[in-house]
Design a protein that fits this description.
Elements: H1 2-54
Amino acid sequence: MNHLMQQDLARAHMTARLGEAQELRMGNRIARARRLSRKAEQAAQQARLALARAL
């Protein structure tokens, strides 16, 4: 009986760790998307400035 409880506990622990890892990956994906968005905005701003100078 004790052995089964230990297995259940280990399984629950592993599931929790997998969930945490998944949340971290999601967070990294969101952070990367924000960085790329910011870079795109900066590039667009530079393009607008270059166009304004050319006129």
